[in-house]
Amino acid sequence: MNNPIEPTHYKNRYDCITFVRSMNFLQGNAFKYVFRYADKNGREDLLKAKWYLAVCISEQLEGFGTSTPRLCQMLHECTFNKTQRDALCAIIKHDWNKAISYVDQLL
Hints:
Distance between the termini: 24 Å
Structural class: mainly alpha
Number of strands: 0
Low-confidence stretches: none
Radius of gyration: 16 Å
Largest sheet: none
Mean pLDDT: 83
């Protein structure tokens, strides 16, 4: 049976995470979809990869960046419960231990 936490479509000689941990979110998602397409969703994954790559190009051309305080403020405009919002904000702030604590609460 396939392990849902570490599925086989993320493994080759190396795990996909070996590569994407040094990438930003958009680049990492594009990489992930190309990495796994043949073993998971085929054409759908390649279309998703193209979408992420187009966003990478757009942001490179336009310049993009939202400050951490603004991102946390924006979370308050979303419909998340408090613990979920706190977990997301902790992730934005790179406060990993707090983020894990909030995720544990959500579990």
